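Hi F.,

I've been meaning to write this up properly since the lab meeting, where we talked about keeping a consistent format for the predictions we share between groups. The idea is simple: the sequence comes first, exactly as it goes in, then the structure tokens exactly as they come out, then a line or two of notes. No screenshots and no reformatting. I'm using this chain as the first example so we have something concrete to point to.
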Amino acid sequence: MTHISTELQAAIKAATDKKALDLVILDVSEVSTFADNFLIATGTSNRHIRTLVETVEVALKPVVGSPMSIEGMNDARWVLMDYGSLVIHIFDDESRKFYDLQKLWSDATEIEVALTSN
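Output, unedited:
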């Protein structure tokens, strides 16, 4: 069983609090050299995606600090937040279907999204 880190739990909670859709965690630690986990989520509009990114960033700041980078905020169709071992992908529905990271990273282990109480 894969351990869900504190930062991953904080990101999931922030995203679900702002109504992110279809959250998926991929454990890419066995198939990637640059990250341990991907968190993939869908937003309903560019504004919703921006809100999700801002909320996740605020939630993670006290846990792990600022992200190494955030890419895609201009168009807000696919925003990538790089926290080193955790990479967060927030898509609009069309981009998520087109890029299909779950298929692209099909060798990764999908982890059930569930928050643990502290």
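Notes:
Strands lie at 21-27, 37-42, 69-71, 78-82, 86-91, 109-111.
The longest strand covers residues 21-27.

If this format works for you, I'll send the rest the same way.

G.
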